[in-house]
Amino acid sequence: MAKSDSSSGVIHTENPRPKALPENVTFDDLIRRNKRRSALLMLGMTALLVALGAAIGGLLGAMGGAGTADHRGEAISLWPSLALGTFIALVLAGIGCAWSWFSGSKAVLKMSGARKIEHKDDPQLFNVVEELSIAAGTPLPEVYLIDDPSLNAFATGRDPEHAAVAITTGLRQHLSRDELAAVMAHEIAHIRNYDVRLMMLMATMVGLIVFAADAFRRMVFYGAVMGGRRGGMRSGGGGGRGGGQGAVIAIMFLVVLVLSILAPIFATMIRFAVSRQREYLADASAVELTRYPQGMIGALEKLGGCRQTLQGANRATAHMFIVNPLKDALKGQGHNLSSAFRTHPPLKDRIARLRALIH
Asked: What is the average per-residue pLDDT within 114-130?
């Protein structure tokens, strides 16, 4: 395997397949697989949100008397309430995805405290990004700098034509030229592989699911308070209808309760699992672009040694960074811990996979 010239900083633009990939699999195959899985996962996320919305709509309908018999003994259908809940969930999903598509990347950059820079501000960084963009066959992304001593970087944008890469001043100062190229190649790989679009959309969907679950909990609290007040004003009567309505409410309550607990957990686990797999692919793609695995290995080792959190990061954006920037991810073994609720795979595993690419 050819290596980059550390003195001149040349990045070779050949497009071979790393040794760790099966003989019949190319990066184009992996990108297409990425897109297919992304579509399926987004459908799954949407289904979770729709199920939760429909269940909440059904519960509200049951509390209003749907699913029981009216005073004439005729059944009141629960379907309109279920359909309304589904419709509202789909509308919220559409609004959330539209916001993520058009404004999500700007919001992430602003939250992270990133500032846009020009070529004159850091010629070497711009030259690296330009060379890697040519090698990846993508347009030149906007370049941002985060004034923070922690070591981290991320990419964002809805597609290669509307993308940006950002790096902290701390990481910029600590990397050699080869390591800088590897980190930027990793982020450009996320752009080329359409990871940034998927992760923004998935973060939005998880946020909506958590919002819906929280709305249910508030509704239960409000219903319990109001129900207690009404109970003091009601006397017996209503007979069969009251019992039937109570049974329907109890069933719908249990359905929504289970969904409100499980849906956010499943959605979060799906998002984190997808994030971990895409980190592995971006690492391998970085080697494909730079032709120098040791650059990525060296950069990850330096990132793993950092114990300083990034001030502008939060749980909503942590999965977008090259390593988890939050305080709780840096305790104990830090980046080497493995868990279903971790946004990134263990650094030792990422480094081991990269070493497998060296002939």
From this structure: 95
